[in-house]
Amino acid sequence: MTDPRPLAAIILAAGQGTRMKSSRHKVLHPIAHKPMLLHLLDSLAALAPQRTVVVVGSLREQVEAAVAGRGVTVAVQSPQLGTGHAALQAKDALAGFDGDIVVMFGDTPLVGSATIARLRAELTDAVAAVVLAFRPDDPAAYGRVIASDGVIRKMVEFKDATPAERAETLCNSGLLLVRAADLWPLLARVSNDNAAGEYYLPDVISLLIGDGRTARVIETDPHEVAGVNSRAELAAMEARWQDRRRAAAMADGVTLIDPASVFLAHDTVIDRDVTIEPFVVFGPGVRIASGTTIRANSHVEGAEIGPDCDIGPFARLRPGTVLGAGAKIGNFVETKKAVFGAGAKANHLSYIGDATVGARANIGAGTITCNYDGFFKYRTVIGEAAFIGSNSALVAPVSIGDGAIVAAGSTVTADVSADALALVRPAQTEKPGWAAHFRARQAAKKGK
């Protein structure tokens, strides 16, 4: 059932990200080939927010470019005076909005739409705000949530907590949900009278409680709200994401012979009864139909692979590759913008780029499509059941007819008719005894 109240989102992304040591904005570093911020925006999209505001500090232009076309507003926090001050920078962009506002963090990309929906379900006439919390193995310096029966009694930053409060294990994720009518007056009241001299967003909850109103807390898996502040934490989050996606793939009927050595992209789609051998890496934009085997040490990106195909080992499928049923791309074969018909084969040591390969065609070892002249790309068309002999060069634009044969070692620069033989190489000549005379002559020179 659709929630009757509209939703808006504020994503805080104004941190300097200095520990990343990067010229790229922290929230644009990728998990599974997708920027962290876009993971979060995609989760929000499932809830159809009316407005979304991303609050940044520096590198605004990078974030604006990343969210272009998504209906997202970018606001700037300068100077940076804490999370409460950052959230306040979204006020103008949300002027006139009357509904629920979820405040999130751009460097915690794995928060799912179901969790946000749980928060919304808790926000009732009797509950003014809802906080998302978690229990980490090591509470460390997280802010604490002091609650009983789900009702928050106090929220306190670690720096300001007493020893007894620090002993509590329920930690604040920073994510909260509150009505727009309450948020802006509360943020205006937040003080920076604390150990850090900052305006803390959690003080919104303390103010609500002080006003005699109710705030509730719900818990989630610590992995869902894990943040990224360094390259090491980015790698750790990538590992967690991969582990979960691999487990989901296997639960859906995919065989991963060595799961830990297979790396998936955020949008990889694999049907059941696909087998993936060790050390396979998927870039974005891959779909694999049932019955296909991806052999070891292959790299696949931007490719649509039909049923019962056989890929690799050591194959590289680049964007624009489309394979029909039962196609074969063998070891040390690279394809790019290449469409293979059903049963077509390129078994080894070939480059097939900007090409259409007909059904049942056979591409011999060492074949290349010469698709680039230094200025423009050209296309090669290979007909159905054509046979391209080993070590052939097809200089595009060129067309090989259905059933034609290109002899091994040919350099083809003109179209070949259907069922014809193209033989492009000089006639073989032989000089009897020449090799023996040559060896004797050279040996004599060496003896001197």
Walk me through this protein's architecture.
- With 448 residues, this protein is an alpha/beta fold.
- It folds into two domains: 7-225, Spore Coat Polysaccharide Biosynthesis Protein SpsA, Chain A, CATH 3.90.550.10; 231-422, UDP N-Acetylglucosamine Acyltransferase, domain 1, CATH 2.160.10.
- It has nine helices and 35 strands.
- The strands form six sheets. Strands 13, 15, 16, 18, 19, 21, 22, 24, 26, 29 and 32 form an eleven-stranded parallel β-sheet that branches. It has a ten-stranded parallel β-sheet with strand order 12-14-17-20-23-25-27-30-33-35, covered by helices on one side.
- Helix 6 (180-189) packs across helix 7.
- The protein is elongated.
- The termini are far apart.
Identify the notable features of this structure and list them briefly.
448 residues; alpha/beta; Spore Coat Polysaccharide Biosynthesis Protein SpsA, Chain A; UDP N-Acetylglucosamine Acyltransferase, domain 1; 2 domains; 10-stranded parallel sheet; 20% helix; elongated
- What distance separates the N and C termini? 97 Å
Structural class: alpha/beta
CATH homologous superfamily name of the largest domain? Spore Coat Polysaccharide Biosynthesis Protein SpsA, Chain A
Uncertain stretches: none
CATH architecture of the largest domain: Alpha-Beta Complex
- Number of continuous helical runs: 9
